[in-house]
UniProtKB/TrEMBL annotation:
Keywords from the named record: Membrane, Transmembrane, Transmembrane helix
Single GO biological process annotation from the record: CAAX-box protein maturation
Protein name as annotated: CAAX prenyl protease 2/Lysostaphin resistance protein A-like domain-containing protein
GO MF annotation list: endopeptidase activity
High-level lineage: unclassified sequences, metagenomes, ecological metagenomes
Organism: marine metagenome
Pfam families cross-referenced by the UniProt entry: Rce1-like
InterPro entries listed in its UniProt record: Rce1/LyrA-like_dom
Domain CAAX prenyl protease 2/Lysostaphin resistance protein A-like, first and last residues per copy: 157-270
């Protein structure tokens, strides 16, 4: 019965995954257009000076005479995400298309084969969970909104930067190091770095509860940080960001650092690149852009994919439990 459910969902699921994948690829040039060619910037352009970066580089003795602009920083970040995205498409063992073919043919895939499929699957689950939380909170009169925003171009740059900074801190350090200390039975610098990059594949993780405890605690801290450290969010952001932090923390624990970054990139850069494109083409605010039919269609696409992903996860869990019981 469970196998039939998964196989019946295989073709529509891979179709949805493929569409989201193509939308993600398209967001790379769209984001570049937003920064360098759109009119969302008001009085600030991609030539806006990045004095903070110049000061940091000067302090460590690098490029003290160089002048950095917002466009330079964006291209650097854009290139890093493109490299990580390419890594996710091609590996670690099979490329993305091979995995899709396996799902259509056999209704299953191996998590160790490719990064991109679990990235899109868990990203859609994150969007589904966030949507449920927002609707539930709004029912009780709790809003989830950013109270104050800077210039739209600077905001988009900050959204592009955040996944690298926050994943390094919250996943790489606050989850990666405790996970290493909990599960490692040897130490070398090379093994330490490999374990931070892909914890599940390099550490001997037999019992997951300790790791899950760390993930939940750090997820709650991640949610609280959006309120405490003046990021301009209302209190309603706490629950949404906490659930997002827990989901991304699990992805880091199970699949590695690159997938965690790409999921965070998708929640920020991917979504907002389309939002700002719609805002620019229609000459209205980013808030109005997220009510536009095109952006709403992307959201519905992600929610439907998230629902199917949850059905497949629950079905696979039931099948695994049944196999364990039968063996006993």
């Amino acid at each position: 019965m469970e196998n039939k459910i998964i196989q019946s969902l295989g073709i529509p699921f891979t179709a949805l995954i493929s569409i989201i994948f193509l939308l993600m690829i398209s967001s790379f040039p769209i984001g570049a257009y937003v920064v360098f060619n759109s009119e969302i910037n008001d009085n600030i352009t991609y030539e806006y000076p990045m004095g903070n970066l110049e000061s940091i580089l000067s302090e460590i003795g690098i490029g003290s005479s160089m002048k950095f602009e917002l466009g330079d920083g964006f291209i650097l970040l854009w290139s890093i995400y493109l490299i990580l995205f390419t890594i996710a498409i091609l590996g670690p063992k099979k490329h993305f298309i091979q995995v899709l073919q396996s799902i259509i043919s056999h209704g299953k895939y191996e998590i160790k084969d490719n990064y991109m499929f679990p990235i899109i699957k868990w990203f859609s689950i994150l969007v589904l969970a966030s949507t449920i939380i927002i609707f539930a909170q709004e029912f009780f009169g709790i809003s989830t909104e950013q109270l104050g925003t800077s210039n739209d171009l600077i905001q988009f740059f900050d959204l592009t930067l955040a996944p690298l900074v926050e994943e390094f801190l919250f996943r790489g350090i606050l989850i990666g190091i405790p996970i290493f200390l909990l599960y490692s039975n040897r130490f070398s610098f090379q093994f330490f770095i490999k374990s931070l990059w892909r914890p599940w594949q390099n550490l001997e993780i037999v019992e997951k509860r300790k790791g899950l405890f760390v993930i939940v605690i750090v997820g709650i801290v991640f949610g609280a940080s959006h309120i405490i450290f003046g990021e301009g969010w209302s209190a309603g952001k706490f629950a949404q960001a906490s659930i997002g932090g827990i989901i991304i923390g699990w992805v880091y624990f199970r699949y590695g650092f690159a997938p965690a970054i790409i999921i965070h990139w998708a929640t920020n850069y991917f979504i907002f690149s389309y939002g700002y494109l719609v805002a620019d083409l229609n000459q209205f605010t980013i808030e109005n852009a997220f009510t536009h039919p095109f952006v709403s269609m992307i959201e519905i696409l992600l929610i439907v994919t998230g629902i199917i992903s949850m059905i497949i996860l629950v079905t696979n869990y039931i099948m695994e439990k049944r196999c364990i019981i039968e063996k006993e």
